[in-house]
Amino acid sequence: MKKIYKTLINLLGLLLVVSLPLNQVYASSEFSEPLSSNDKAMLKQMLKPVINGISALPYVATALAVLYILYAGIGFVTAGYDTAKKEQSKQAIGLTLVGLAVVFAAPYLVQYLMA
User: Fold this and answer.
1) Contacts for 72 with CB less than 8 Å, ≥ 6 apart
2) Exposed, middle or buried, 89 (CB in 10 Å: 0-12/13-18/19+)?
């Protein structure tokens, strides 16, 4: 038991030593200054992978939802006379559809709130 605590303390100490240089961040400009066109182009280039990843999320969510609905459907069909398993499968399908609705409605909700 003492060996586990000693290892944990050593790991926390190592994490502290490694993270100390990371907490000093120096900004090169004021936030009140407008961005130059070069800075805007650089920011757009830096955010391109993030935007591509976010735009792929609905497709990934849809594929996972279809697989989970198939899994729940198989659970519903194989439940036989067990009403608890049937209800659990129906609930899983319903919650998956609600989750998909949230995923597809989120961009519109954000756009409405930001306007």
Assistant:
1) 89, 90, 92, 93, 96
2) buried
The larger pLDDT score, comparing residue 16 to residue 110, is at: 110
pTM of the model: 0.60
Residues 70 and 56 sit within 8 Å (Cβ to Cβ) = no
Q: Which residues contact 83 (CB under 8 A, 6 or more apart)?
A: none
CB 93, CB 69: distance < 8 Å:
yes
Give the span between the Cα atoms of 91 and 102, in whole angstroms: 16
Domains in the chain: how many in total? Answer: 1
> Which residue range forms the structural domain that includes residue 44?
2-114
What is the spatial distance between Cα 22 and Cα 26, in angstroms, rounded to a whole number? Answer: 11
Mean pLDDT, residues 72-99: 95
